[in-house]
Design a protein that fits this description.
This protein is mostly helical. Bound molecules: glutamic acid (GLU).
Length: 485
């Protein structure tokens, strides 16, 4: 068995978000950099909130990110099942052990009993702690209550003094006072373990060596350590990764840009960009370049993880994504976009070879895959609108119609339609008229694309071909003439 075994343990009560993906990635990088195993466990005991669609969503997002698991759903291993909802018999064995050896006890207090205790504490301005009433029940009293059919919870006995120390691989040694922890509930009245107990039993029985998770779980760790002790289990090592906050230092929410991975995917972000961005988030290193998976794995160390919160910055992610877009092969982009209905329609209209050329021309201008759609539009649609600011700047000059007519003549009489020849012809035309080439290029661009900023004009002309350039110039001349009326 691998010495290093880590796990990602999401609860399927929502989609995979940036925070979860970050935790999953750090675990995965740790496993891969130690030739260890990465285990995926679904913590789905909250039956009311867990949903199968979220399970599929989480698995899909992880797969898309390239975070593969060695054991988990669809990949049975020796320590399954990997859904908590299927592990009740495992839990029951250890719950019985805790009750038998006196580390835990049944609690018959009703919700009302506990609310009353809380109210009293509130009135007396004291912090609430469970009174420990049921801890004092004698075995025959417990039996009598059980035989009445009451469904108790189970509480763990926490020492009323002393401290529990968490030796965290990122945050160092942190002490927690036991008296503040209370005899917390470890089994609910329906017989299912609560989060802290389930996680301890699972991490132990799945031979997890390192628990790497978000800082928000740090306060659970002393409770879990006490459970490890009560069960006689050796505890794993812990590493609590800083939270990811929004730039305004608040909890991440929709307001700060899409955070479900699924949505980022739908918006046209690439998995390599997201993984590269997440790997830098909260860890020291050069954040201007995207590393390959290999480089990320080789360079990963818990020592480089920051103790302060990391800030999620969608603009940074977008910048990395656009940088990556310009470097991707046309084939890869075509594969990514193949299923999009607009792309299928375009390919049907003008073929794959044409689409590939379009992609080659526009990819370096696209921030996301979805941007390609608006950038490619005029390569397919002849009836585009002209940009307002372009009309003002390039179509309203008194000699525009004349310039466009000369360009039309140039296009009509051009015997070759390659970008180089077109460029040479246009420059010669400009020179013969004593104009700067830009005076022709700007109105031509607007006439042929409707836009003021595009990839190289001559490459666009070559791709559009003589006939479409003719038509578009004629259409623009008509438009400009109407402006004058
Ligand atoms: N199911 C917990 C969560 O989604 C996992 C906590 C842990 O890693 O221990 O936050």
């Amino acid at each position: 068995m691998s010495a290093v075994r880590v796990r990602f343990a999401p609860s399927p009560t929502g989609e995979l978000h940036i925070g979860g993906a970050h935790t999953a990635l750090f675990n995965w990088l740790f496993a891969r950099s130690h030739s260890g195993a990465f285990i995926l466990r679904l913590e789905d005991t909250d039956k009311a909130r867990s949903q199968q669609s979220y399970v599929s969503g989480i698995l899909d997002s992880l797969r898309w990110l390239g975070i593969d698991w060695d054991e988990g759903p669809d990949k049975e291993g020796p320590f399954g099942p990997y859904y908590q909802s299927e592990r009740l018999p495992v839990y029951q064995k250890y719950i019985q052990q805790l009750l038998d050896n006196g580390h835990a006890y049944y609690c018959f207090c009703s919700e009302e009993d506990l609310s009353r205790e809380k109210e009293t504490a509130l009135k007396e301005k004291k912090d609430y702690h469970y009174s420990g009433r049921c801890k004092k029940l004698k075995p025959d009293e417990v039996d009598a209550l059980l035989s009445q059919g009451l469904q108790p919870t189970v509480r763990i006995k926490i020492p009323s003094s002393g401290i529990t120390i968490v030796n965290d691989l990122i945050r160092g040694s942190i002490s927690f006072e036991n008296r503040l922890l209370d005899d917390f509930i470890i089994v609910k009245a329906d017989g299912w373990p609560t989060y802290n107990l389930a996680v301890v039993i699972d991490d132990y029985t799945m031979h997890i060596s390192h628990v790497i998770r978000a800082e928000e779980h740090l306060s659970n760790t002393p409770k879990q350590l006490l459970l490890y002790q009560a069960l006689g289990f050796e505890a794993p090592q812990f590493a609590h990764v800083s939270m990811i906050l929004a730039p305004d230092r608040k909890k991440l929410s929709k307001r700060h840009g899409a955070t479900p991975i699924k949505e980022l995917r739908e918006q046209g972000y690439l998995p390599e960009a997201l993984i590269g961005y997440l790997a830098q988030l909260g860890s020291s290193g050069n954040d201007e370049i995207l590393l390959t998976r290999e480089q990320m794995i080789n360079g990963f160390s818990l020592d480089n993880i920051s103790r302060s919160p990391a800030m999620y910055d969608i603009d940074k992610l977008t910048w990395l994504n656009s940088h990556l877009m310009s470097q991707l092969s046309n084939e890869r982009i075509m594969t990514e976009m193949a299923a999009h209905p607009q792309v299928s329609a375009w390919v049907k209209q003008s073929g794959n070879v044409y689409w590939e050329k379009v992609v080659g021309l526009i990819k370096s201008r696209a921030k996301t895959l979805l941007d390609l759609l608006s950038l490619a539009d005029y390569f397919y649609d002849d009836c585009f609108d002209y940009e307002e600011k372009g009309i003002e700047k390039h179509f309203k000059a008194p000699d525009t119609a004349q310039i466009l007519n000369e360009l039309l003549l140039m296009v009509k009489t051009s015997d070759s339609f390659s970008a180089e020849i077109l460029e040479a012809n246009l420059r010669a035309l400009a020179e013969s008229q004593g104009r700067k080439a830009a005076q022709l290029i700007h109105p031509a661009r607007l006439a042929l694309t409707g836009k003021t900023a595009t990839p190289g004009l001559f490459e666009i002309m070559e791709l559009l071909g003589q006939e479409r350039c003719n038509l578009r110039l004629e259409r623009a001349i008509h438009f400009v003439n109407k402006l004058k009326i």
